[in-house]
Design a protein that fits this description.
Elements: E1 3-6, E2 13-20, E3 27-34, E4 45-51, E5 66-70, E6 73-78, E7 86-93, E8 96-104, E9 114-123, E10 126-133, E11 149-155, E12 158-165, E13 180-184, E14 187-191, E15 202-208, E16 211-218, E17 227-231, E18 234-238, E19 264-271, E20 274-282, E21 290-291, E22 295-298, E23 301-308, E24 322-330, E25 333-341, E26 353-357, E27 360-365, E28 374-380, E29 385-392, E30 408-412, E31 415-420, E32 425-430
């Protein structure tokens, strides 16, 4: 079960239901926590743990290293699974989550890291998922990442490969096409890093009929685009250094921001079919020791993570202390609003995983509790961020192994999913 730690110390009634979802072998554990009637929040908080059996379907290897959710569809990457990685797709029906399909790396490249980046969008036109594969499928053991992006569409409960998107600049080993991806409605952004004389870029695709076509090429200053988020007609590009697959390099200090040194991002908006730069948002209050590892946007609120990384050769005092710097748009102007700080001062890479939906933000601290990890849910009240709840994995700080709960986070509507790739589990949280 997933522990829920209320901020007001309420007494709870518990009901645990365990269901095996048929031939898929996926195990669905549902824990309902109900606050007493006298509480101001006498509403059920429902959590589901999406786990996997290793045979014969959804693999558990780094399951939860990348997560995405949209409406009733959850996409979870297992990039170190055998034969190049895998992606597991769950669907919710009548309040229950079931494993719907398992997608495999088409070329079966041993070092492809298929599923290291995932995104999903549910629209009136259908439900679509994009899966990044950092490798190139040559099985050489020498990783030269510039893998394609695979686009899938759901049809009658199953998923089919709809399209394969490749770097518009051509194949360039180490260019990291799909270093970052995000979808919103029928729009998607895919970023490259740029290497060997190739300019980095962020590409915007839109759904046109039965295919995704390139709409725009955005070139923010070098390094920006390694983090990307999109919400409707607004997208933001940030700089966060090279990504890593949990297990290969779980220490984010190996991937510091390589641009400004303080959390910042470039905001673009679409007018018709054209995108233009609207703002450069930044927090310069620190001593240039904060590095970004995630960003998020929903409507007119944007979040930029900032994790303290000591300068080379400097003291590591305070290392891992994180913040989520928040910005709000009023008409066309962006301004700072209060920062979301780590409630536990855990020095656990707070904001390494982060997402926002409406006025609700979910922030992970995967290195907290000796690597077991924690996650927090906050609500924007109009003048401050109110802590709603703290979530910890089973066993709390004695989870048995380094779960890295909160490494990857995604929120949609009143539902959030939180990956714990160290244990091969992903948790679903319904927020009333």
């Amino acid at each position: 079960m997933l522990a829920w730690l209320p901020s007001h110390g309420a007494t709870l009634r518990r009901r645990l239901v365990v269901r095996r979802t048929g031939a898929s072998g996926a195990l669905l554990c549902v824990l309902t926590l109900i606050a007493p009637a006298a509480s101001a929040r006498a509403v059920p908080w429902t959590h589901a743990a999406l786990t996997t059996d290793t045979k014969p379907h959804c693999p558990s290897a780094q399951f939860g290293a990348a997560v995405a959710i949209s409406a009733n569809t959850a996409v979870i990457g297992a990039p170190t699974a055998p034969r190049g990685g895998a992606v597991c797709i769950f669907a919710r029906s009548a309040g229950k989550w079931r494993l719907q399909d398992v997608l495999r790396d088409p070329p079966r490249g041993k070092y492809d890291d298929y599923g290291a980046v995932v995104t999903v969008s549910s629209t009136t036109a259908g439900t679509y998922a994009m899966v990044g594969a950092w490798g190139d499928g040559d099985n050489s053991g020498s990783v030269q990442p510039d893998g394609p992006v695979y686009v899938y569409a759901r049809s009658r409960g199953s998923w089919r490969l709809m399209q394969t998107l490749s770097d518009p600049a051509g194949y360039h080993p180490g260019n990291w096409f799909d270093i970052a991806m995000a979808m919103s409605g029928t729009s998607a952004v895919i970023s490259t890093q740029g290497v060997s004389g190739v300019r980095h870029a962020s590409y915007v695709y839109v759904l046109s009929g039965h295919s995704w076509r390139l709409q725009a090429t955005l070139r923010a200053p070098r390094g920006y685009g390694q983090l990307a988020a999109i919400s409707g007609r607004t997208l933001i590009l940030g700089s966060g250094g090279l990504p890593s697959v949990p297990g290969a390099s779980l220490d984010p200090h190996l991937q510091p921001e390589d641009s400004s040194g303080y959390p910042d991002a470039y905001v673009y908006v679409r007018s018709g079919s054209r995108w233009h730069l609207q703002a450069h948002i930044a927090d310069r209050s620190d001593d240039n020791a904060d590095s970004e590892f995630s960003l998020a946007i929903s409507g007119n609120i944007a979040l930029l993570s900032g994790i303290y990384v000591p300068p080379f050769g400097g003291s590591d005092k305070g290392a891992d202390l994180g913040h989520a710097f928040a910005f709000m748009r009023t008409r066309k102007t962006w301004h700072r609003i209060p920062t979301i700080n780590d409630p536990g001062d855990s020095n656990g890479d707070f904001s390494n995983g982060m997402s926002i939906s409406g006025d609700t933000a979910v922030v992970g601290a995967p290195e907290a509790q000796k690597g077991c990890g924690v996650a927090y849910v906050f609500t924007w009240t109009g003048h401050r961020w109110a802590l709603r709840t703290k979530l910890v994995p089973p066993g709390g700080d004695k989870c048995g192994k380094r779960a890295y709960f909160g490494w990857a986070v995604s929120a949609s509507g009143d539902t959030a999913i939180i990956g714990a790739p160290g244990t091969g589990k992903t948790y679903v949280l319904s927020i009333p």
